[in-house]
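Progress report, Aim 2. The chain analyzed during this reporting quarter is listed below.
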Amino acid sequence: MSSYGTLIFFCGKMGAGKSTLSASIARERGAVLLSEDDWLATLFPGEINDFNDYISYSSRLKPLLRKHVEQILLAGTTVVLDFPGNTRKQRAWFKDIYSQQGIPHELYYVMADDEVCLSQLKQRQREQPERATFDTEEVFRMVTGYFEPPEESEGFNVEVVERAFT
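Predicted structure tokens for the chain:
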């Protein structure tokens, strides 16, 4: 039996509640929480103005974090990665972290209708006005066009979480 930590990561449309769930799981499990939004905002303040900027800066961040996350997991600490795993390519990055060493993993698929996501985005615009220009319905529709739900053939340990209006 290994004493590795567990890699926990998420899939779900923009505004589905992945960040809220990731923070909750990290608290419950006493895990290290790493948020892509926090890292990008800290390292590149004011530089991410559209989706192409996000893609560019995110792709620069991931190689830096990959080995770091693996070392934390190998040391026995669970890591919750609040980074999107919304396409097969994005999920392959997570698989690259855990598969070579046989590190346990959990993929939470946060399922939510577009209406729920858009409502959450409107709330986030009010609570985090610095994100209001990015968290729009137009960006949601564009990003959702690339969304790929996880498939059994990808080989992930998937936990489905369904979100609805509350």
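The chain has a mean pLDDT of 93. The first helix runs from residue 18 to 29. These observations will guide the mutagenesis work planned for the next reporting period.
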